[in-house]
Amino acid sequence: MNLGLSEEQSAVRRLARDFVEREITPHVVAWDRAEEVDRAIVKKLGAVGFLGLTVGEEYGGSGGDHLSYCLVTEELGRGDSSVRGIVSVSLGLVAKTIAAWGSEEQRRRWLPGLTSGELVGCFGLTEPGTGSDAGSLATRAVREGDSWVLNGTKMFITNGTWADVVLLFARSTDDPGHRGVSAFLVPADTPGLTRRTIHGKLGLRGQATAELVLEDVRVPASALLAPEGKGFSVAMSALAKGRMSVAAGCVGIAQAALDAAVGYAGEREQFGRPIAHHQLVQELISDIAVDVDAARLLTWRVADLIDRGEPFAVESSKAKLFASEAAVRAANNALQVFGGYGYIDEYPVGKLLRDARVMTLYEGTSQIQKLVIGRALTGVSAF
Ligand code: FAD
Fold first, then answer.
1. Which of 29, 118, 120, 254 is deepest in the core (most CB within 10 A)?
2. Residue ranges of the Acyl-CoA dehydrogenase/oxidase N-terminal domain (predicted)?
């Protein structure tokens, strides 16, 4: 693997860094306090091409490789994880999944809007009663003539109240021969679909996280994404790439923690000199730096494997597991460097820690990533 960046990749990273400094950084604290990112950011992300990375230009995408996608995701995560998550879901989990599994008609209908930021997508897998055990989901899809009728509840759905289209997973059959889950593309304004914002989150406060309730939601047969019964494979393939995106966002959090800790340690004086002169402060900083490098290298390896067309799902779990735990450690260490000032939101590190914490929970908890890795190593499924 070539660990250097090409000129194009370096340019994409610079573009992302400038975008974050101009469009995101000035608003981060206000959005976090208001519990809402300004929705105008979505079209800006689309205009600069960040919502179309790796998607073909014939569908409005901006092409590019997965390492470029990781570089942009890292920079967004460094700026504001709430914004990073909007992209990771609308592009990473929804648009890319439509590109990979959708019919030509579905691609043409949804991808230009999703990649330009005219439309937002959300990923409806988790339910109140099924999180880690997603295959046991209870939302039902019943075929009636040329339609599907959907009933059920989805929980913790990122972009839920903003979304124009829901990539929804529902049980369409009890056939014991397969898992019986199918994937559907449900326009969010379909009658019977209601959404409730979930407030009071520890982190990612700027993001619209919602509960979705489906009561006799009727969609045409053409809303089925991929063959009936393939929905669980669709979800798992989306999450395998999604975990790389979460990992890249975590690298961004850890890098932001490092930048903040180094800056503050050089300025804050105690015992007559900047705290950077104290060995135990250097220990905190160097621990963050090692976490940043290790998380980044694991994440880049996943991108490299995808771009070379090799299997990557287990490596993606490793990267997500390590990077999410590393982001929590890094943000916590940075908060320690800031002392009491780290505990108030005039300084960035408290938010980094709050935002980092969910990364060990969603798209598969750390325990679930370990079971994925353990299954690959032992051949035994211990779920
Ligand atoms: P549970 O599955 O109930 O787990 C509880 C605990 O038990 C965890 O520690 C878990 O690791 C452990 N556990 C469970 N099973 C095992 C096992 N077999 N072995 C060992 N330990 C186990 N979901 C979506 O579909 N779309 C989204 O866009 C989305 N966005 C989210 C945004 C936020 C802010 C949050 C908080 C969640 C989001 N989720 C989303 C849901 C998320 O993916 C789930 O919360 C996650 O999968 C865990 O499920 P759970 O919360 O039901 O926990």
1. 254
2. 6-118
Closest-CA residue, ligand 1 atom 38, reads 156
Contact 275, 234 (CB under 8 A): no
Residue type, 127: E
Strands 121-124, 165-171: pairing kind: parallel
d(CA 139, CA 257): 40
- What ipTM is given for this predicted complex? 0.99
- Residue that has been written with the tokens 């300084």 in this structure: 347
Q: Position of tokens 């914002």?
A: 197
- Which two structure tokens, joined as six digits, stand for 268? 């804050």
* Distance from residue 108's CA to the centre of ligand 1 (Å): 33
CB burial class (10 A; 0-12, 13-18, 19+) of residue 341?
A: middle
CA gap 299, 309 in Å, rounded: 16
Distance (Å) from CA 377 to ligand 1 centroid: 23
Q: What is the DSSP string of 163-226?
A: -SEEEEEEE----TTS--EEEEEEETTSTTEEEEE----SS-TTS-EEEEEEEEEEEEGGGEES
State the Rg of the chain over Cα.
21
Cα distance between residue 138 and residue 129, in whole Å:
8
- 363 catalytic residue (yes or no): yes
Residue 204 Cα to ligand 1 midpoint, Å, equals: 16
pLDDT digits (tens, 9 = 90+) for 159-207: 999 999 999 999 997 665 557 999 999 999 999 999 999 999 999 999 9
Q: Is 365 in the pocket of ligand 1 (CB under 6 A)?
A: yes
Q: Mean pLDDT for the chain?
A: 96
Spatial CA neighbour of 207 closest among 90, 303, 103, 296: 90
SS3 state of residue 29: helix
Residue to mutate (ligand 1; options 126, 355, 383; most atoms within 8 A of CB):
126
Q: CA-to-CA distance for 300 and 25, rounded, in angstroms?
A: 25
